[in-house]
Design goal:
This is Glycosyl transferase family 2. The protein is α/β, with parallel strands linked by helices. It has helices at about 15-20, 40-45, 60-70, 90-100, 175-185, 190-200, 205-220, 225-240, 245-255, 260-275, 280-290, 310-320, 325-335, 340-355, 355-370, and strands at about 5-10, 30-35, 55, 75-80, 85, 110-115, 125-135, 140, 150, 155-165, 300. The protein has 15 helices and eleven strands. Strands 1, 2, 3, 4, 5, 6, 7, 10 and 11 form a nine-stranded mixed β-sheet that branches. Strands 8-9 form a two-stranded antiparallel ribbon. Helix 6 runs parallel beside helix 8 (about 225-240).
């Protein structure tokens, strides 16, 4: 059985740290906590789980802090989390099984990172991250912001998920770091261009975001996953400023970098739906359902676009096209995912009234007689 060191970097995490550590403390062999300047009870909470608590002066560089945490680990493998991450019970069991069975030739294990879920508990946004790595490989973190772990060698794609359950977020932190670096005259490489554009988009600075996404794509040096994501974000930015033609153009541009993804098929379908081109819209929503699923993707995907959303929109399209039975069938598919959704229930009542008027009338008569 392998040994595992859990590494975290923290700052003012008293509201989430105990939850994170409770979810994994009995599985790992060592816990390393690197504190970057907490002023709350974070270190006191951490002390109940480990003596390996280290102070690290914050220098606006996440990779530097994570690399320092990794340098303090002593187990054969290193697992990393953020304080607002946790393992749910099913994933705890899977992690225990992995610990007992992992072959020593494996250098890195990737896991799902579930970032959001709907009211039914279904994951709606997820991607993969390298989570468990062999310490002897001395893998390094790269990037001051939106850092990534550079790995190589023999990898294993596990079905274990880390669940992100943030209670709060410093919305301006990363933007401040990026703009401080720009003010210092730093020239951004492709990855920083992409993530700075993301920060601008998140702050509704859409025109600036568009300019930086374009700069990123023009480098032709970005990861293919980021190229595809940039096309989607460009499309969203153009929609936000009312640039309809570019909204479609950038969604289509994503096809330059790979096969059509469900999210982009839905974007294109929605554009045509708004134009009243219902047959064309239906084609693209059908394509979303046929496109490759995102189970193994390293790109952050909207899982709604490969499950209920295309069905709901196809209901609208086929209703407009006069094919009520197809509309009803697709709405029922959406209802399987979202049984209490207001739009789905409205469609159900509306279509049943048109398709099965006798049954509805008899039901109403029965209700009156009671």
């Amino acid at each position: 059985m392998i040994t595992i060191t859990l590494c975290l970097i923290v700052k003012n995490e008293e509201d989430v740290l105990r939850r994170c550590l409770d979810s994994v403390a009995e599985i790992v062999d060592e816990i390393v906590i690197v504190d970057t300047g907490s002023t709350d009870r974070t270190k006191a909470i951490a002390a109940a789980y480990t003596d390996a608590i280290y102070d690290f002066e914050w220098i606006d560089d996440f990779a530097a802090a994570r690399n320092y945490a990794f340098s303090q680990a002593t187990s054969a493998y290193i697992l990393w989390l953020d304080a607002d991450d946790l393992f749910l019970e099913a994933d705890r069991r899977k992690l225990l099984e992995l610990k007992a069975s992992l072959q020593p030739d494996i250098d890195t294990v990737s896991m799902h990172y579930n970032l959001a879920q709907d009211e039914y508990g279904r994951v709606t946004r997820s991607l993969r991250r390298n989570r468990l790595v062999k310490r002897s490989r001395n893998f390094k973190w790269i990037g001051a912001v939106h850092e990534y772990l550079e790995v190589y060698g023999v990898s294993l794609a596990s079905d274990i998920a880390v669940t992100h359950a943030s209670l709060r977020h410093d919305h301006n932190r990363n933007l401040r770091i990026y703009e401080k670096r720009l003010e210092a005259g730093e020239a951004f490489g492709p990855r920083d261009l992409y993530y700075y554009a993301n920060e601008l988009k998140d702050h509704a600075r859409y025109e600036e975001a568009i300019a930086y996404y374009v700069k990123f794509l023009e480098t032709r040096e970005g990861w293919v996953e980021d190229n595809i994501a940039a096309c989607g974000k460009l499309s969203d930015c153009c929609a936000a400023i009312g640039s309809s033609e570019q909204t479609l153009d950038y969604a289509l541009l994503s096809f330059r970098y790979g096969s059509p993804l469900p999210e982009f098929c839905c974007r294109i379908g929605f554009w045509h739906l708004n134009q009243g081109a219902y047959a064309t819209a239906a084609y693209w929503y059908e394509a979303a359902l046929q496109a490759p699923k995102s189970e193994q993707t390293w790109t952050l995907g909207n899982l709604s676009c490969e499950t209920w959303l295309p069905h709901l929109q196809l209901c609208v399209c086929y209703d407009k096209l006069g094919d009520l039975r197809k509309a009803f069938w697709h709405n029922e598919q959406a209802r399987a995912f979202r049984p209490n959704d207001a739009a789905v229930l409205y469609n159900k009542a509306y279509l049943e009234g048109l398709l099965f008027p006798e049954e509805r009338l008899s039901g109403e008569n029965a209700a009156e007689s009671n």
